[in-house]
Amino acid sequence: MAKAVRFHETGGPEVLRYETVEVGDPGPGHVRLRHEAVGLNFADTYFRSGLYPVPLPAGMGVEAAGVVEAIGPDVTNVALGDRVTYTGFLNTLGAYSTERLIPAAPLIKLPDAISCETAAGMTMRGLTASYLMRRIHDFKAGDTILLHAAAGGVGLIVSQWAKLLGLTVIGTVSNEAKGEVARAHGCDHIIYYSREDVAKRVRELTNGMGVDVVFDSVGKDTFGASLDSLRRRGLMVCVGTASGPIPPFNPQMLAMKGSLYLTRPALADYIADPVEKDELAGELFGHVAAGRIRIELNQRYALEDAAQAHRDLESRKTTGSSVFVI
Predict the structure, then answer these.
(1) What is the residue range of 96's domain?
(2) What is the mean pLDDT of residues 45-59?
(3) Regarding beta strands 58-59 and 30-40, do their DSSP bridges make them parallel or antiparallel, or are they unpaired?
């Protein structure tokens, strides 16, 4: 029998249950997938806590990689035995499982050079980095970015990609150990947000100008400093709310701080078009396969230890990517 992590009520990590589940045969447009590795993402905690409401009981997780074991009618994009990866939102919820039924549409075939473990640790983070680097802003060599959570899974990929584009990267981290990790992956300057004034330090590093773009995955705690770190007509990219939602604010503030731009993108809108998804995935896989971007799998867990994995993630003990190994 298959195993899955599910939750019957919202709350802390303790609500996660490791259960036996029955997986049937795939219907039209679906496949049965045997997982080899499952990704752990901060967004998972939003479903568990109720920030992203879903009907209960529900499965957990939106990213995994494995092998196609059965195919339903009308599936043309994958074949039996294909190694695939996926990420998404409601259409892929339930990834914390040994096997599952899933729509075939989100599945992405894996090149031989990329293992299922690596794929599970990079698909959501990597595609996020891909659209941030290739769709959000027309970067030019010499531009400067401020990257919060620079030692996290997305941060490490963005840093490396940014260096491929000739950008200067200022990263924020909580401690020296994470600072060393961020530097090793391309950060030119490190700011320790727990003891330094982020905006003041950014101005010092940019000769008073500010940065061209801020990538802020923290949210409430960093929003003000992020805006104050931007140059005139700079772009604020809100890509997450790890510290909580951003409080309401008057848009006039953007004008007062230099006619700033602000966007709150979601990965789903950048991979909804299959052609664009393939383009973003192809460039990502190409960089990883060639060794230009390294994926750091720094934490591995058993699926039954999902509650501890969530505790580690929320307490910011992790760096790079985390996966459940099946």
Answers:
(1) 2-123+285-325
(2) 95
(3) unpaired
